[in-house]
Structures are given as C-alpha cells and as structure tokens.
C-alpha cells in the first residue's frame, strides 16, 4: 500500500522491548492507517448481548467512516450490518441505540427486517429484486455474550479464543444481565496509548487509590508464578495466599490455568484470561469492597473474594465480579482522541435504588477512568516532543509489550 509507505518504514523501526516510533502514536497517517486498514483486519469488541437484550434492540458501533448496526432479531439471533441504506447510501440508524420492529431509512423509507432483508422499497422499476438489496452484513462472533465484529472481507479465524473466553465467562450468564450504566469518555490521547495504559499497573500505586481498595497490582503484569524468575516481585506471603485461593477455586470447579495471549497459526496472541484474588477482603470492585448489587450473577453467591479478568487485543478489557460485570472498549476518533466506553452490567431482575446504587456501582472505575485519561493525555503530549525516544519497558510492562507486538504484527499483515 504505497499510500502508507511511512507506516511501513516506522514498523521497520520497531524495537523488541521498546515503545513504538513517535509517528505511529501521533501522526494523521497512522490514524488513517489504523482506522482504514489495520483495525478493519482484526476482531474488535463492540458490546455485549445485554446491549441488544430484546428483539428489536440495536446499537451502533463506529470505526472511522464506518458504522455498524448490531441488532437482535425476532429469532433472538444477534447480527451486524453496515449502517448504509442499499438505495442511495443514507445512514439507516442515526441514534446511538434504540428498539425498532423494523429498520427504516429516514431518507426514502426503504424498510429492512431485523435480519437485514429488504422488505419495502417504493416505485422501483420492473426487474428490481428486493432479495438482492438487503443490508450489507458484517462478520460477528458471540463469545459467551461478548460481541466481536470484523470489517474485513475475509475475517481471520477466531480460533481458540472463543472457547477459552466463553468457557470461563459462561458462569456469569450474560444473557441474564442488563446494562445498568454506560459511560462514554473522550480521552485526549491516541488510542494505542490508552490501550498501553490499561495493559500495566506499573503506574497504579501512585495514581489509583480507589482502584487499589479492591484490586492489587499482582496479576496485571507481575506477581503470578507464570510471570517467571525475572519478575521484580518476590512475595512469599502473596504466593502462599494465591496457592490457597487456587485450591479453593479448584474445589468450586472454577479454576483454570492462566491463558496468556497464546500464539495460534503463527499469529500473536489475541486474548488473556485470569482469575485473580481481590485485595483487602473485598468481594466486589467497589470503594468499600462490599457488593455493588444484592443479586448475585453466578452460582457461588456474593462472598467470593475474586474476580475474573479478560483482555482482548486490540481494544477491550473486562472484569467479572460476583454481582456485576464491567466491560471496556475503545475506538479511535482522531490521532489524539479516543472513545472509551464503559458499561456496568447487573442481574436483569435487579432494581435500581433497591438492589443497587449506580453511584456505588460505578465509583471505582469512574475515578480510575478519569485518572487514566489524564495519564494517557500526559503521555500523548510528551510523545509529540522532538525529545521523544523509544523507551524500554519495565519487567512489569510485559502486557504492554504484548499489545505492541500484536499491533505491529497485525499492521504488517494488513500491509501485506
């Protein structure tokens, strides 16, 4: 792709164990490449089944110039389509979400079923066949209730990620949850910096007091036996506690070995799944460590002092607690602007103000998101400097390195 020669040159400057060249973080060409080429070639987290809970529910996922309608049909199946009418291309759905018995283009009222088939088009010439003019489908995978889309003509195989993730999150019954709160935060930083910030807790001790009430920095790039001998953490008490917790999880039947971005078919890893102990006796990710909702969402009650974390490359992370789920996704809006979407899910029968307080439910991650937005912005502004040089990762930043490696490899494949 000759138009992206600069991107190819910058990718060749990648250094193992170091950050990316500046142009890949702050350049307009990199933004165009990411949204028009690289991110179109991979699977992206778009939402959950709770975001399209009932037949007729739909929401819009956006990447660059492309909008995708994700809709639940009358047959209860969730599908994805480009948000472009097959008549003259107008957007069919202008709102961010809604519920409709049919999808009707506001321009000339071409009408589509929830399965994307064209139902009505007025005054068309002889020989016009509605069957040839349905909405253009987009590849979608439902992974245990997490919805991923891919805009490529020939999406890559989902591989073992679907099995690994779905198997472990199945006990949280996402089909029985609802979206209690959703926040959209525009961060003034490149999307890759927002992702990198998420992929490490090297910064947590000095920046996230609310988060550390229920989460420790162990397991987020350091502190697990699988992290190896070069880890900076040497904590016998933590190791003993983790061994006891893992035996407890085995007794409950919920223990799985750490899934650490496994390579597949010669491609870098897409997913990480880890059950981790909560800190300070917490049973949920809240300021006081107590449950955020009175209704458990899994079979083991509200007293379990652990949560399950799922990371996917290149745009999402998720935390599954006894009583709620928090999902995060991001999409680039510009070279220096990123949409972070955070959704809090609770049991579908939980009643606001009775079973859960939205302020209590969201307090930890709202504070953490605001802090991370500031940190990502500081990072972005510093990288624009002529003094920026590719910097070395610490031993606690191996998950950052894993994300960077995924980005570089996916970009190289997309460039051919």
How far apart, in Å, are the first and last alpha carbons?
8 Å
* Rounded radius of gyration (Å): 22 Å
- What's the helix-strand series? HHHEEEEEEEEEEHEHHHEEEEEEHH
Structural class: alpha+beta
Strand content: 15-25%
Unreliable stretches, pLDDT < 50, 5 or more residues? none
Mean pLDDT reading: 95
Shape: globular
Number of helices: 9
What kind of sheet is the major sheet?
7 strands, antiparallel
Largest beta sheet: what is the strand line-up? Answer: 11-17-16-15-14-13-12
Range of helix content:
25-40%
- How many beta-strand segments? 17
Features:
416 residues; alpha+beta; seven-stranded antiparallel β-sheet; four-stranded antiparallel β-sheet; 17 strands; 26% helix; 23% strand; globular
């Amino acid at each position: 792709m000759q138009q992206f020669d600069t991107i190819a040159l910058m990718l060749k400057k990648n250094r193992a164990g170091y950050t990316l060249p500046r142009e890949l973080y702050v350049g307009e060409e990199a933004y165009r490449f990411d949204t028009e080429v690289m991110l179109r070639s991979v699977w992206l987290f778009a939402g959950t089944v709770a975001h399209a809970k009932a037949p007729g529910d739909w929401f819009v996922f956006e990447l660059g110039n492309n909008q995708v309608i994700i809709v639940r049909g009358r047959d209860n199946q969730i599908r994805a389509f480009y948000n472009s009418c097959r008549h003259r291309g107008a957007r069919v759905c202008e709102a961010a979400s809604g519920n409709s018995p049919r999808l009707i283009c506001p321009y000339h009222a071409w009408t589509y079923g929830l399965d994307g088939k064209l139902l009505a088009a007025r005054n068309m010439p002889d020989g016009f066949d509605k069957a040839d003019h349905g909405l253009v489908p987009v590849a979608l995978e439902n992974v245990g209730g997490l919805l991923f889309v891919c805009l490529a003509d020939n999406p890559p195989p989902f591989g073992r990620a679907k099995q690994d993730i779905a198997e472990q999150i199945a006990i949280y019954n996402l089909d029985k949850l609802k979206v209690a709160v959703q926040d959209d935060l525009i961060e003034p930083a490149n999307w890759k910096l927002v992702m990198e910030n998420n992929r490490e807790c090297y910064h947590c001790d000095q920046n996230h007091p609310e988060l550390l009430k229920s989460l420790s920095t162990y397991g987020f790039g350091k502190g697990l036996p699988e992290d190896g001998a070069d880890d900076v953490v040497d904590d016998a008490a933590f190791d003993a506690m983790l061994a006891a917790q893992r035996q407890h999880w085995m007794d409950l039947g919920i223990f799985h070995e750490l899934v650490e971005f496994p390579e597949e078919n010669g491609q870098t890893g897409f997913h990480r799944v880890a059950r981790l102990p909560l800190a300070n006796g917490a049973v949920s990710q809240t300021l006081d460590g107590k449950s955020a909702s009175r209704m458990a969402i899994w079979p083991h009650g509200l007293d379990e002092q652990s949560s399950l974390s799922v990371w996917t490359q290149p745009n999402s992370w998720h935390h599954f607690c006894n009583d709620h789920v928090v999902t995060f996704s991001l999409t680039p809006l510009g070279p220096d602007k990123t949409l972070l979407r955070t959704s809090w899910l609770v049991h579908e029968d939980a009643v606001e103000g009775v079973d859960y307080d939205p302020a209590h439910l969201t307090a930890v991650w709202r504070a953490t998101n605001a802090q991370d937005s500031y940190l990502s912005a500081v990072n972005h502004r510093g990288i624009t400097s002529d003094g920026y040089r590719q910097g070395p990762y610490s031993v606690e930043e191996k998950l950052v390195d894993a994300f960077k490696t995924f980005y570089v490899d996916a970009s190289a494949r997309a460039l051919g």
